[in-house]
User: Fold this.
Amino acid sequence: MNTIRSQIIALLLLISGVVLLGGGVWGFYSLYAISHRYEHTTGIIRTLQTKKIYRYRKIRYKKEMQIAYSTDKYGDLFATRISYWPLRSVGDKVSVWYHPHRPHEIRLPESECMLWGLLVASGFICMCGSVVFWKTSKTADKSEG
Assistant:
């Protein structure tokens, strides 16, 4: 009975690992695909606000940052984004990619690389865990028989 449970866990870990790994690879590919079309510049964090949001029985903190970046055609622009990096502060320089015809459409490649890298690492860990569960179920099956 434990071998069937271990095989089911191994299969679920394998499926979730493949999905996470695929999501991370897709994210890196989308970032690579736009890297040639978007303009690259450096932005500076002008303001960083931490807001307390009350949910049912939970307190959440939301950090919003205002980024100032300069474009060739449109001059200096500002964008507000949510910050997921814990160690950001006012005055930090941030890599910004913007669309040449719609300059308010920006991407922050450092933040996205962190997210996609986390997905790839989680997928790899899940796939390794599935191999471990699969091998332990096979060794347990041989010892019972």
The chain has a mean pLDDT of 89. The longest helix spans residues 109-144.
